[in-house]
Design a protein that fits this description.
By secondary structure, this protein is an alpha+beta fold. It has a single domain, classed as Alpha-Beta Plaits, CATH 3.30.70.640. It has four helices and five strands, in the order E-H-H-H-E-E-H-E-E. Strand 2 and strand 3 form a beta hairpin. The two termini are about 30 Å apart.
Length: about 160
């Protein structure tokens, strides 16, 4: 049975009342491919809209905190740490972005990490679309999670 649907087919929020409070972490990542020229402008800090990496980090952190406002039936979590790491990969013509979320609670933070990385990548796209209209956001995925009943998961 699906956990967000009751016996009558109605949407419900999962009841986590009886779950144990544990330390939980989740890390998600994604990439944005772009022209070498756009990547160089970002690295040089010459994108007309400003510091792309700073804006993307802030956007990713804010998005992780607002996940329950964006994803239906997502629990509101008291996040204790959110980091957004951004790495230009010049040889591959892309930027790798990851978002790590930590909390102590009754449910995991996978959706918050995925929302954070997605929004950081969308912010890069928005700030650079005048420089390169061919950008592609791809490979958004959960890389690792820990805590709770299911324990540790790491993408191989």
């Amino acid at each position: 049975m699906l956990s967000h649907i009751d016996n009558n087919g109605n949407a419900i929020m999962v009841d986590v009342t009886d779950k144990s409070v544990t330390e939980r972490t989740a890390r998600a990542s994604g990439r944005i491919y772009m022209s070498r020229e756009a990547l160089a402008e970002i690295a040089d800090g010459t994108v007309p809209k400003g510091d792309v990496f700073a804006a993307a980090r802030i956007a990713g952190i804010m998005a992780a905190k607002k996940t329950p406002e964006l994803i239906p039936l997502c629990h509101t979590l008291m996040l204790t740490k959110v980091t957004v790491d951004i790495t230009p990969l010049f040889d591959e013509g892309c930027i790798l972005c990851s978002c790590t979320v930590k909390l102590t609670g009754k449910t995991g933070a996978e959706m918050e990490a995925l929302t954070g990385v997605s929004t950081a990548l969308l912010t890069i796209y928005d700030m650079c679309k005048a420089v390169d209209k061919t950008m592609v956001i791809t490979d958004i995925r959960l890389d690792e999670k820990d805590g709770g009943k299911s324990g540790h998961y790491e993408r191989k």
